[in-house]
């Protein structure tokens, strides 16, 4: 028995293992087909957009790209941006960059914006963006160094250089927002829409 009513699994236009696991845990079968698009080029062409608008633009572009390849399938794309003040952050490329990035966030509140775009029959049928606010505690440089040693290469897989579901939670003092949004997939509004369209059992 399955909650998913369609004959074929949902296509996830993302290589994120976390997003895939969230959907699987919610009873939604998933086929993974990451979108091969130039995200940095889209960012440069959309420099006038706010961080949440940029997340929405990237999610839409990813979904549109994969939906063109699978026009008869339901395709979900997602993207996440992170900002602190006027600065927009990207995934750190090495440990030095990760250390500098996390140090710049200590004692401050930053925002994570997670956007989704759902396509069916080749067209976008649902879009949404949710925001979470996270405050890092004022940790010492030594603590940040020890954290990075323990986290290892995982710091390169997230825009903030941390995984809140792992030891990254040690960096934080306060969290405001939905847990799924922080992980990069606003799951509750997505499920509400899927249930309304009876893709899953209402």
Overall average residue pLDDT? 93
- What ranges have pLDDT less than 50 throughout 5 or more consecutive residues? none
As a percent range, the share of strand residues is: 15-25%
Strand/helix succession: EHEHHEEHEEHEHH
Write the layout of secondary structure elements.
Layout: E1 10-12, H1 17-25, E2 30-32, H2 39-45, H3 51-69, E3 75-84, E4 87-89, H4 95-105, E5 109-120, E6 123-136, H5 141-151, E7 172-176, H6 179-182, H7 187-196
Parallel strand pairs: 1-2, 1-3
Antiparallel strand pairs: 3-4, 3-5, 5-6, 6-7
Helix pairs in contact: 4-5
Protein name: Nucleoside triphosphate pyrophosphatase
Catalytic activity: a 2'-deoxyribonucleoside 5'-triphosphate + H2O = a 2'-deoxyribonucleoside 5'-phosphate + diphosphate + H(+); a ribonucleoside 5'-triphosphate + H2O = a ribonucleoside 5'-phosphate + diphosphate + H(+)
InterPro entries: ITPase-like_fam, Maf-like
Can you tell me about this structure?
This protein has 202 residues and is an alpha/beta fold. It has a single domain, classed as Maf protein, CATH 3.90.950.10. The chain is built from seven helices and seven strands; from the N terminus they run E-H-E-H-H-E-E-H-E-E-H-E-H-H. The longest helix is centred in the N-terminal third of the chain and has 19 residues. The two termini are 14 Å apart. InterPro entries: ITPase-like_fam (IPR029001), Maf-like (IPR003697). It is found in: Cytoplasm.
In short:
The chain is α/β, with parallel strands linked by helices.
What labels would you give this structure?
globular; ITPase-like_fam; 35% helix; Maf protein; Maf-like; alpha/beta; nucleoside triphosphate diphosphatase activity; 7-stranded mixed beta sheet; nucleotide metabolism; 7 strands; 202 residues; Nucleoside triphosphate pyrophosphatase
């Amino acid at each position: 028995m399955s909650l998913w009513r369609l004959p074929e699994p949902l296509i996830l236009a993302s290589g994120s293992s976390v997003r895939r696991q969230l959907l699987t845990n919610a009873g939604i079968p998933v086929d993974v087909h990451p979108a091969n698009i130039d995200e940095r080029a889209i960012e440069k062409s959309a420099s006038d957009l706010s961080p949440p608008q940029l997340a929405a633009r990237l999610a839409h572009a990813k979904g549109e790209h994969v939906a063109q390849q699978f026009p008869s399938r339901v395709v979900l794309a997602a993207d996440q941006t992170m900002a602190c003040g006027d600065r927009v952050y990207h995934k750190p490329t090495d440990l030095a960059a990760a250390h500098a990035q996390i140090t710049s966030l200590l004692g401050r509140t930053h925002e994570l914006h997670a956007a989704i775009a759902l396509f069916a029959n080749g067209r976008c049928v649902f879009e949404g963006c949710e925001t979470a606010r996270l405050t890092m505690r004022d940790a010492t440089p030594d603590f940040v160094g020890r954290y990075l040693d323990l986290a290892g290469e995982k710091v390169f897989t997230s825009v903030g250089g941390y995984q809140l579901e792992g030891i990254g939670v040690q960096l934080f003092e306060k969290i405001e927002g939905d847990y799924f949004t922080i992980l990069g997939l606003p799951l509750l509004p997505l499920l509400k829409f899927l249930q309304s369209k009876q893709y899953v059992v209402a």
